[in-house]
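Researcher: I'm preparing a figure for a lab meeting and need a structural model of a single chain. I don't have an experimental structure, so a prediction will have to do for now. The sequence is pasted below. Please return the structure as tokens so I can convert it later.
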Amino acid sequence: MLTIGQLAAYAGVTVRAVRHYHQVGLLPEPERDASGYRRYGATAVVALIKIRTLADAGVPLSRIGPMLAADPAAFDAAIDVIDRRISEEIQRLEASRKQIAQLTAGDSAALPAAAIAYLDRLREIGVSERMVQAERDGWILIAARWPDRISEWIPDKLTQLADPRVVRLYRILSEILGSDSAHEPLLAEAADIMAALAGEAYAAGAVMRPEETQDELPFDLLDALADESDPRARRLRELMRERGWGSWTRLERLADPPG
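Model: Understood. Here is the structure written out token by token.
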């Protein structure tokens, strides 16, 4: 006959757990012997091992009692339900692991491979990391709204990097982001380049799909992202409007440019 300590050690649980199982009615509490000690037999050991096994498998204590009292067929059916639940939990955890792996991969979080390749190309041409991160956040907004269009847009964006003006634009923006100064001359130069590029694209007939032009939210978010990242973004938009363009995020030609 075993003491409660010996019972707990044999079954691989704590004495506190045994007492808790007594309290919730899972394990019968034996009467005290003549010496005043509770003694446990082999049946209690078997019952405790079953309880521990089910509890370790994640079975709620409230369900363990009925399972132990069930006939073999009912017990097997309950085990099948638990097994399915565990399998579903494993799938959920595997999905979570993949998401965590994406987050630890930096730019790959929420971005397709094509966009990541574009960001890497920006680094190669000397764009600052802060500017690359700003570009990354913008592409995250775009990919969330139009995931199927990324593979169409990125090749054009990579082609544009062959234009020295585009490279100069990114380097200007990198310099602006790297300083707290107003940088009015650089902002004006950036606006000149952006207006010239927009004018050429507009003259070439570059257009957006109706579902894109009618969906203003992504463009509003892109503008807001720029404003939240750097207050000088508002000044750059003002300079763009002075040159006849309402936004740098889409071809929005103003009918009556200011001034």
